[in-house]
Amino acid sequence: MSSHATTIDHHHDHTTSTGIPNKKLLMWAFLASDCMFFGSLIATHLIYRLHPPPGTPSAREVFSIELTSFSTFILLMSSLMMALAVTAIQKGNVKSCRWSLLTTIFFGCIFLGCQVYEFNEFVHLKHLTISNSILGSTFYTLTGTHGTHVAIGVLWLLLMYVRSFQPVGGRSQVSYFVRTFVHVAAFIVVIGLAMYAVLGLVHTLQGGHSMGSWVSGHWIAVLGLLAGLVVMNRLAQPRGPIEFNEVNAIDVESMGLYWHFVDIVWIVIFTAVYLLEYL
Amino acid sequence: MRLPTLLSPRSDTPISFWQTSVARWTRALLALAGIALLTGCDLKWWQMDGHQSTLVTEGPVAHSQAQLFYVTCWVTAVIFVLVGSVLAYATFKFRAKTDADEHAEPPAQSHGNPLVEIGLIAVSVIALVIIAIPTLHAIIFTHDVPAERKADAYTINATGVQWWFRFEYPAEQISGAGSLVTSNELVIPAGRPVRINIRTLDVIHSFWVPKLGGKVDMIPNRANFLWLEAEKPGYFWGQCAEYCGDSHAVMRFRVIALGPKDFNDWLDKQLQPARTVTAQTAGTAAPKAQFASLRKFKQNETGITAKYDVNPLAAWQELQKPDANEDAALIARGRQLFTEKTCSACHAIRGHMPGGSPAYPDLTHIGSRSTIAAGLLENNAEQLQRWLRDPGAVKPGNKMWVDGYVKNNIKLTEADEIALVAYLQSLK
Amino acid sequence: MELAKSDFIPKDEAAAQKRKVLWTPTAKSGLVMWLTTVDHKKIGFLYGFFALIFFLIGGVEALLIRAQLAFPNSSVLTAQQYNEMFTMHGTTMIFLAVMPLSSAFFNFIMPLQIGARDVAFPRLNAFSLWTFVAGAVILNIGWFIHAGPPDAGWFGYAPLTSKQFTPDHSTDFWVMGLQLLGVASIAASLNFIVTIINMRAPGMTMMRLPVFVWMTLFTSFLIILSFPAITIALVEVMMDRNFGTGFFEVSLGGMPILWQHLFWVFGHPEVYILILPAMGIISEILPCFSRKPLFGYPIVVFSGASIGFLGFAVWSHHMFTTGMGTVATAAFALATMAIAVPTGVKIFNWIGTLWGGHLKMRTPMMFALGFIWMFMIGGLSGVMHSAAPADAQQQDSYFVIAHFHYVLIGGSIFALLAGIHYWFPLMFGRKIAEFWGKLSFWVVFAGFNITFFPMHFLGLNGMPRRTFTYDPNLGWNSANLIASVGAGILGIGIFIYFAVMVYTYFKGERVGKDYWDARTLEWSLPNPPPEYNFAVIPTVHARDAYWYEKHHQEEIAKEKAEHAKAEESHGGIHMPNASIWPFVTSMGLLLGAWGVSGVTADPSPGIHAKLAICLAGGAIMILGIYLWSLEGNEGYHIHLDENGNIKEDDHGHGAGSAKH
Fold first, then answer.
1. How far is C365 from chain A (nearest CA, A)?
2. Which residues make Cβ contacts (< 8 Å) with residue A185, sequence separation at least 6?
3. C615 Cβ partners below 8 Å, 6+ apart?
4. If we measure between CA atoms, which residue out of C78, C85, C236 comes closest to residue C162?
5. Residue A169 — pLDDT band, cuts 50, 70, 90?
6. Is residue A270 predicted with pLDDT exceeding 90?
7. Per the CB < 8 Å rule, is C473 touching B142?
8. What pTM was computed for the model?
9. Cα–Cα distances in Å, from C620 out to A154, C586, C587?
10. Do B110 and C295 touch (CB under 8 A)?
């Protein structure tokens, strides 16, 4: 499989009737369906925006457009990195692809972190909960669904990253299964601990507490984070020929389609939910 | 003729099904069953003239809807006959009659004829236009009271509640008690357009009086309305037409249309507080033996007698007058029980029982209504007692049973029931 | 079932099991085979098997409904039981009978008609099947537990589905059951779309696709575009019930009318999801038994497309009585009339197909002709509904029941019963006896009309739907009694049909290939079709590809021989591996959905157990997906000898065999 590296046509698959690879077509069809999911949610939000029940809090007072604009920008940048990852693997550059994937994951996590921060702030400071007004119901359900899409995307990226280390004939080795599992677990732990530590840091700085209190509350998390990074680094060391190359470009590309779609949906949500309030 | 077919179902011979003996037996049985059915049934259903007929109509809105129905019916019937004849002709003309036919050279492998198809499409579009024009006209007409009659229109608010209807007359204000309220029987002026605001207190219901007009749904958080008019005085059947839970089927009501004078008389009476019966006003006749015919009812036993089919309006008018032989003592006992048994916590009886809640029927003039339990039972002593004894058996899941009898552990003796019935019947 | 006749077992299977970390199932029979199969034909069979079971259950529910309504004020069922019956009858017939039965044909027939060896994603296909089963279990679980079966109607109008009005968990099970069915339907449809667009045999251009394949494609598009609306609506109900959101909560300002819009944006396309496959089946049967091509093929195809397209523009005709105002009412009335045109066109084309043919009056043809008649009645009463003011009287009355049963039984079910008869010889190599087939047709036909024709009169005479009882003085007694007797006859007809079908499955007469002298590619296969379908992928030269092959035999034989050689030089016939992980994933979903349905907002006793069930379900699902993706999809190869028997089968192992 890895022997004929130069002749692959990335845009045409001769085994299908249309030349479009099956996975890509599947992803396009799924995204069409997903459009309707978000369409229904956004429609629900806009309908209740047009018919606000009495006592609905003003969205403008709740939202903080600066933070959301920042996270929107970050998500856009993640799409750029995703595109770079696809280009890299199409050229057979696995290493560059991995770095682009990692950056995409990193940006995706920043976006998710912003959302966690935002939700937390809205609930505790602005007193907008999912059950005390329709605005809360539609807002959290819509952005939460989008956040879930981003989280699934991050998980998928992460699995793709880990998969890029698959040795030749890897599927018949027990060690490969164990290593993959540890790799995925370490990655998830790192993301979780990093978000915990950073959100704690932001909270400390905002609350005007001392750094000492943050350290004393988070040093275990930071240690765990470092340990996780070390494990990840060890597992990412080269160990012989791998089975991940331009043939897998279609997998990365399908994932990219998903990621870009989620990004575009966010642009729509950002416009319809946030920007609309500032007109 | 060919009994072996029955015995050897594997036979490949494509003989006609109708040539077999089993088929003949089936036919005979079907014919017998058909005759038995037809003789056992009255054929009136064919005429569709029941109390809730949408075709034998008594008001302009329903007329318009029925006429539109006939237009659609005729257009589609003509299409059906035309297309059906061609289909039937093709089926018989081109069917393979013999074994040889089936194995003959296949017919010409033709693929279609664009001209025929475009022609047929054009014809169908024309047929639809014939339906579309009266449809648009009727949509406008049935939507709201025509502009030139707006001034004459009488407004009523109808509210659906699980599982009964509350009717409010905003034009008739009573000092200290708000608008005139009644339940399950809507009295309207005949010959005047009536504009009804359609609301609900809980789930979705639908307001439907087939002889006067189509339905409009009662939807929470939505200000719907409809209009209808009864051309002549009459008594009409209505029903909730949107599934609304356990007792949806028995959420019914009546509409009584009265001429101008009768309507005003009725309003005057309704505006009075509840009637109080004392020994002086009870009349001179000896108190009647109220429950000589008391009996137990089967589950789901019909609660309406034939007098409402023969002359419902007269039957209703009869109920407007007080009974000649009322037992003042018994009525007083009933009034006392109404409070004791916590009935008054929910039901308002203006003049007798203050309070109550709009979520439960107002009983100020219940004695003058022709039905109880939302149009389910006739308003007479034995049905009223049946209802008071075990509301849950009459109307599954109803609130009087669930939130009243069960929650407050209400127990009524037979004497209690009789006293309550006497009291409620006195509320004319 | 003997779909795969091969009892070939790889010689070094034991060695293979050692080298492979994840288990590759190789069973050719037994439970393991059924749970792990990825063969579209076996999956199609299972879809059909479950669908027919639920069809019978839904039928029993219908008979109970008719028993209750045979006489006024009768007490066969209580109000509660009656409400459960009509809720479950509707939900079962739509989601668990007609849709999966259509799906059975999509699975079994569609890949064969386009000359493919399987669907594009065989394991996803298995996942769809088992998720459908999981959804069916969740929907029906209420019969066996304290909460009882759902009773808020198949349409579940808010706010009747809120915690306030249905406090027990029956509605939660209804919500989660439908969610799983939605996942199953969308996954299956994505698969069919990719298969039809991408897996066609050489020469099978889009305008050569059999009409059934076209209708599969349109149905699949309708499913992926319409199911999201109900999924979101159900999510909103679930959030309202469990997390206190206010989507349909009136006290917070929620608007229950929104549910109706979301529901019918799904619900109306759903109607076409139910009828388009039926139209596809009819468009296969009529040409076959008329022995001439479909009349006006392009118009039939494009009318299907326009029905699918317009199907998204007419949803509010289910809401003519909700007070939409004159403009919206008029717009939806006109759109609804417009959709009658492409529907009528199909009927004209079917009659055109009969015209000038040699009509072989066999059972499938009887059902197909019955379909045209009944669908015509149902379609025309549908046109009556488009006249909105008249519909204000008909809405939610028995007239509507008559209308949609003419479309769904006279339409969908007749066509599906026709399809079973038509494809039975192909699927199982046995034929259903003509006599019994025709007997069942006539009894079903008579019973159906006796049941539903009087309902038109009932509706116009003012009988509302979903009522467990009625008074005897309203003029409804006779028609109801006739309808109930008819339902009994219909039940007998269906019983005959099924008894004969089961008998034939085990004991029926065996028949050879191409029993009906048919026109499309699936009939070029021996019956039952081998697991690899086509020994040589066919090359298509015309619409009605097999008819062409039969009339150009020499040329085709030569072509096939060449292609067989070429394919063998490419490493033989590539087959996908069986897998247990789709099943595991679905069972995780089942467990999770069960747990979620039981969870309440207030921490009540047992909440931790229920949360544990949710988490366990989620964990199993994630494990299933994880191992599913780790296991890869190399597949294996089959090598045939000259006679088309399997010569060699490198089942998922052997150096170099997995790749080419």
1. 33
2. none
3. C595
4. C236
5. confident
6. yes
7. no
8. 0.92
9. 20, 9, 8
10. yes
